[in-house]
Amino acid sequence: MARNLILAATALCGGILLAPQAGTAQTTIDSIGVTVTTTPAITSDYLFRGLSQTRGRPAAQLTLDAEHSSGVYVGAFVSNVAFAGTNARSEVDYSAGYRFALGDLKLDLGGTYYSYPGYTAPRGGFELNFYELALRASYEIAPVKFVGLAAWSPNFTGESGSAVYLEGGFDMALDYGFTISPRLGYQMVERNIVPAAGSRDGYFGAPDYYTLSLAVSREIFGGFIGTGMVVWNSMTHSSGRSDCFGGSKTCDSRAIVTLSRPF
């Protein structure tokens, strides 16, 4: 049982957890109308949707994004991970989609495939790989940009069935180059707990939960972006901690720092 609980935790990997960057560095290939952004980063803890993916340890990450002038884009994300009880040590995500605008409303409709090269499901365990479709939206009323996310997977990590994640928040520019970015999210999964005896279905291993984060970011020097973030989720309190993948500290509230440099 504990093994499958750890597998479920890996569902929350997928995406670099940085506040919106204070500056943007890009390379444009005019002849084909493609803009490429490369963002290496180091972080004190790899978090996604409120949960640690490295058991409180640092991570080195790389995000690539190539967008055509038409709005079509492809991307990739790479990070180390550490899941107790598994041989999963790396994550590679592939994404593609279309970005467009309806007046002042900016939309991003895309999908991501989350993979864990080298991972082998143990006997009685379930696959980690899964894909997710997402709609992202933003609307700016300076100096505030409102953002939203709705994501759906037909078969979430751990083969746990349909899953939906909803998130909303805003980015606000402050004095002295700072940006503040609060987010509130809610994760729902079809099969949360161990199924009935004899069932071969996978499961998530934790109840549906809320997650709340607050990030502050600023360009430090030479294009390097520093981000500080505090994260809380509804399994943090004592009554819910035992529901967090068998009592794992993955769900504890924590603070992290990240340094990134977009090129």
From TrEMBL:
What lineage is this protein's organism placed in? Bacteria, Pseudomonadati, Pseudomonadota, Alphaproteobacteria, Acetobacterales
Q: Which UniProt keywords apply?
A: Signal
Name of protein:
Uncharacterized protein
Keyword Signal recorded? yes
The leader peptide range reads: 1-24
The answer to whether keyword Signal applies is yes
The record ties this protein, via InterPro entries, to: CHP02001
